[in-house]
């Protein structure tokens, strides 16, 4: 999460930028405490400068993968297994126009893989320009399309031995956002655990799916990318309920990055796994304690954990192009590839 590049050599999962997760957000709707906002950001607008194939080159113009599946997962009983899922599929027509259909499933079906469920939003238009196209459907509100990337981080400084200068790599970058407003009762009656994932059709067809990526907590994938190739692939293809198997590997990494003792590293790793974003819709959102807003400085939180308090910030603050109303993310910047 917040890595924007999760495949081998700083590329994209399955080589498809449209399936790459960047960030997950959850917070109460401003001005309406009875509803919540869930945001899944995917598809960075440019390749990473470490990407060997196309450093800083533009990614696809098409926002979302019509052959893919995008999911919000919601655990309502703290067992790291989904009890509710919102599934988003996209369809493309001539001229590059896309529409989105959102389905909801509950119970055991929510923990499984598939694109079925009750239709909540039907064929909503996807935004390609600066003006957001918002769809109201019953007690849900929906947006999907290009937006200004709200993530802020001195990425160059991170790669320069954590020598930060306040240079925000993401200040002029875009992402594709899926924003869903839901009534709080739709999330259950208490604190929930959230994560999101993308899926692609399995080889051979037959209607089966394979998980391309999953995540919840910002920047945590940097630890995942430091694992062996087999461990990394197992993590990205796995489920939060199985995350305890990675505690030892996370702890080993933390011993090196933060100088933690073995026991303390295990304790800290245990607070990072299973990888879910805890969210109580009845309380104000603030990462890492409850959900995550668009202005929370998640990078500073992660750096303090990674270094055991030796580095506490990257000198970068929230973006100033956020909107006061739905969908809350700022309009997209002009893409060089789009003219």
Describe this structure in words.
The protein is of the alpha+beta class and 339 residues long. It has one domain. 15% of the residues lie in helices and 28% in strands. The protein is built from 6 helices and 12 strands. Strands 3, 4, 5, 6, 10, 11 and 12 form a 7-stranded antiparallel sheet that branches. A 5-stranded antiparallel sheet has the order 1-2-9-8-7, with no helix packed on it. A hairpin with an 8-residue loop joins β3 and β4. α4 crosses α5. The longest helix has 12 residues. The chain is globular.
What distinguishing features does this structure have?
five-stranded antiparallel beta sheet; 339 residues; globular; alpha+beta; 6 helices
Low-confidence stretches: none
Count of all domains:
1
Helix percentage range: 10-25%
> Number of helical runs?
6
Q: Can you count the beta strands?
A: 12
Instruction: Report the radius of gyration as a whole number of Å.
Output: 19 Å
Q: Give the class from helix and strand content and strand pairing.
A: alpha+beta
Give the biggest sheet.
7 strands, antiparallel
Mean pLDDT: 93
**Strand composition percent:** 25-35%
| Secondary-structure element string | EEEEEEEEHEEEHHHHEH
What is the 3D form?
A: globular
Query: What is the distance, rounded to the nearest whole angstrom, between the alpha carbons of the first and last residues?
Result: 29 Å
